[in-house]
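Troubleshooting: if your tokenizer reports a length mismatch, compare your output against this known-good record of 162 residues.
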Amino acid sequence: MRAGDLPHKLKSIPLAVFLEKEAQQLFSPDLSIEQHAAVLTYAGTHPHIFKLFQAELLRAGPSVRTEQVVKDVKKSLSSFFQDCVNQLREPLEHQVLASVIIADKPVNPREVARAVGLPTIKSVADTLCALGLVGRWIRDEEATLSGNSRLFSEWYREREAS
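Known-good structure output:
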């Protein structure tokens, strides 16, 4: 999908994972509060996924169910998701990504490190966060890792199951 193909003008988004408060500034005024929540839930803070999901919501209009938009966007992003996974060079990166995504909840990096048999996974987590595949958060004064985009996480789990 090219920007010229879109019926609505969207703000330019820098190519870096952004914070949720930054994402709030990028919402189209034509989206409802419920649609804002859907974008953050399914796209996370990865700029490309965020922009595509938002654009598809705008294109589809208010009468189309969010579930259908999720299905359509996930399908359209399949090759992009595969490209993201292909950026991982080390088996350890794949192991850590799988541990975080399959957990399907925020996990402590120390638990993930123990699961893969290492004292720390900081450099691997840094890589996964930079790619926008994993988000790093502080919850209850504890560091956690979780899937950054539900669309990617669902795609990844489906891919691993097949």
